[in-house]
Structure formats: C-alpha cells, structure tokens
Amino acid sequence: MRARSEVLETAILGILADSPLHGYELRKRLNMVLGSFRALSYGSLYPALRSLEQRTLIAGTETKDAPPQHALSGRRSRIVYELTAHGKEHLQGLLSSSGPAAWEDESFDVRFALFGKTDAETRLRILEGRRTRLAERLEMVRESANRTRERLDEYTLELQRHGLEQVEHEVAWLDELIDTERGRARAPRSEARRAPGSTTQNEAEGDPRPGTTIKERG
Amino acid sequence: MRARSEVLETAILGILADSPLHGYELRKRLNMVLGSFRALSYGSLYPALRSLEQRTLIAGTETKDAPPQHALSGRRSRIVYELTAHGKEHLQGLLSSSGPAAWEDESFDVRFALFGKTDAETRLRILEGRRTRLAERLEMVRESANRTRERLDEYTLELQRHGLEQVEHEVAWLDELIDTERGRARAPRSEARRAPGSTTQNEAEGDPRPGTTIKERG
DNA sequence: ACGTCGATGTATCGCACCGATACATCGACG
DNA sequence: CGTCGATGTATCGGTGCGATACATCGACGT
Predict the structure, then answer these.
(1) Which of A175, A214, B1, B152 is most exposed, with the fewest beta carbons within 10 Å of its own?
(2) Which residues, by range, are in coiled-coil regions (chains A, B) (predicted)?
(3) What average pLDDT values come out for chain A (218 residues) when binned by 10 residues?
(4) SS (H, E, C) chain A
(5) In this complex, which of B116, B140, B159 lies closest to A155 when CB atoms are compared?
C-alpha cells in the first residue's frame, strides 16, 4: 500500500505549481527548499515525473530550442513539466490533508515548505499535530531513559541527552509558529488568492479514527 | 560498491562486544542506544546477522532451553550470537578508523555511541572531523541563503533558519565535547569500568596491521 | 585552433533498508 | 480458558539513494 510516497509527489506538484520546470532545475529548487541537505536523487525524481505524467497530473513538453532574448540561455533538449487541471486539483487535496501523514518526520518538512499554498486552518492543525507527536516522543524517550539510565555508557547517555535537546528545540520552534499562526487566524488577512476553479470541499482524507482530534496534551 | 553498509555492522559488532545476544534483544539495545528514533528494522538486522556469520565475524548458537535458575526466563528457540576472535579484530579496525566515513551523518551517531570502546585520540579526531564537516555545511547553506533570500517564500525561509539553528546547536555541542576530550587527553584517567573480557590492553603492541591501514580515502 | 573542464540535462541500474507481515510460543490477567 | 501483549525468527515488496552513463554547451587557457 504505502501510498507511493505521497510526500515526493506533493513536493514536485507543489514546486511545479509556482512555475513549469524541467527535471534538473526542479531538483535544484527542491533541494534548496528542503534545506540543502535531505537531497533528492535523480533516481527518485525521474521515475516520479514519469508516473505523475502517466496519471495526467503533469504534462511534459520537450523544448528543442528557446529563442533567446538576451542571446544567452539557448539550451536545448529539455522536458518542461507543468501541472494539468487534474494535477492542480490533486495538489489541493494533498495540501488540505492535515492528518498524521502530514506531520510525521518524512513529510512535515515538505508540507511546511508548502505552507504558503495551504490555508491557515490546515497550517495550524499540522503544526499542532506535529507538536503533539514530538511531545509524545519526548515523553517516551525520557521515560525509557529513566528506566535504563544506570546501565548506560557515558557517551550513550550524552547522545541521548543531545537528541532530547534537539527535539525540545524543535518543540519550542513549533510553539512560536503556533503562536504566530493563532495571531494570524484572529486577524485574517487576504494572504493569497487560491486557484478559483477547485472548489473541492475537502473530505478530510486524513484518517477516519475518531481519536485523532488534536487533544493538545501538555 | 558502498561497503555493504559498514555502519550497521559496526553497530551490531559493537553491541555484541559487550555481551552475546539474540536478534530481538540486539535490536532493542540498538534502538535504545541510537536514541530511540532512527530505529533499525528486522528487515535489515537478520540479513546482516547472517552475512556477519558467513564471514565468521560472529557465531550463532541456537539455544533450545535455558535451565532456569529463578524458575523464570525459560524462553526457547533463540539464536544467540557472539563475536569470534576474527570479529573482535575486525571491530577494532572499524573503531580505530577516524576518516570521513566516521563522521558523516549516517555513521557518526553509531561511532559516538561506541566511543567507550574507542581510544581518546580517535575520539578527538572524529569529533573534530564532524565539527569541520558541519561548519562547512553551515557555510554553504548560509552562502546559498544569501544568494536566494529574496526569491523565497516566508515559510521556506523559516524552515531554512530552523535548519541552520539545529546545525549550529550541534556544533556547540561538539565544541563542548571536544573541550572535555582535550582535558581528558591532558589528564589521562583510567576511565570507565569496561566489561572485563574485552581486551582493553591491546595484545601484540607493535601491530600496525598492514592490510587495514586506516587511511580511509578522503 | 585545440583541449578540457564544469555546468546543464536526461536517464537507468543495483541494492540497502524500511515497513508490513507471517508464524509461533509464552506469561498474565480477567 | 480465552485473548492479549511481549518475545522471538524470518521474508518480501517497494522506495529511494548513489553511482554511473551519455550528451551538449560555454568558458578558459595555451
């Protein structure tokens, strides 16, 4: 099952929503956006592009020669991809989901990078979801640390401590962001016009489990 | 080539050096040591164990029934692995390497967790190597950020900033550790009660082991 | 004029590893 | 006595990485 790596496709669709691009340039943007580490390999990108094209979410056009305005930039033989209407619709669906799949480690960064295309309510839910997730993790690790502290090596302990600090730091970061978003929700600004065509009343595809409401545990 | 995932094998060998274990328990220790996230899957562990056994670095013994002393702990049918002499030697080689392969993202955590089995000089080299690596990364990202700052989304910028902070935090951590290790090098203390069986005092002192010269390919 | 070097560009292949799953036994709890 | 969670070994499909191949182009030196 595993949803054919939703996150990769979300990222590609999200970048292409801004402007049509060819693979090479797309990869550069992707890596820039994702913080320069966490690189995306061509071995993933090109197959993904082909799959996306087969499902008519994007359309590729081979460009032989671009008539140069400045006499430069005359590269040839590239395949420029752009979103189809279907693709835009699909992207809207992906961006409106706010379940666990949006805030887990593998996907959160990409979803966050696309926050500019996401409505404020969804942003807040994702932020809170991730915060809760990290808090749970913190709890688990701390508990397990208390149980096993004695038997552990000095360096292992230090590694654990540092890992904890990193997560705590991310939680603090999230708290700031949540604060900001809450403020924004109070003073709603017309921050961006969406594509008007896709009315798609989103049927919260996240996950049906009723226990998933945010809950806001300390 | 990619050296059959040296890091996984280092981790397994390192844990087994403390005490013989079976797969299930081994995995628990591994995950505990590695900070509870970054989990190791059985899909990696069991094949790795088999490979290690084939190369006579570890030896597995099937235990049918343990005569219980306390009337409990009578589980059956488990395969307990322990290091062979060859395996111990190999582990020493792995632990004495201090090149890039030791301080890259994929391996640093494991190597650090095994610092208790590593001599002070190697520890310091690895720590400094990683610090330099992260500083380079910081430099690159900052530079690229300066070039592209204008064209980037508010949230993308925030993501970048947070990523930078995380790395900066790790650098600060490393600086503390380097300080500590330097102090330790100056005042050499008989640190840590290790497991008594594992030869802390190296047999055959003048043993440069020509085949395994560290060197590590920059 | 020639070489070659790095950036741009598309594409594939091996394989390491994860996530899911299957199967089995055991202790504990109601 | 039934089932549930922990213990335990093992495999399998799929995703994505790293390496590589191939090709063109501008720029630079000599």
Answers:
(1) B1
(2) 138-165
(3) 78 94 93 77 94 94 59 64 95 93 91 94 95 90 81 90 94 97 72 43 39 34
(4) CHHHHHHHHHHHHHHHHHCCEEHHHHHHHHHHHCCCCCCCCHHHHHHHHHHHHHCCCEEEEEEEECCCCCCCCCCEEEEEEEECHHHHHHHHHHHHCCCHHHHCHHHHHHHHHCHHHCCHHHHHHHHHHHHHHHHHHHHHHHHHHHHHHHHCCHHHHHHHHHHHHHHHHHHHHHHHHHHHHHHHHHCCCCCCCCCCCCCCCCCCCCCCCHHHCCCCCC
(5) B116
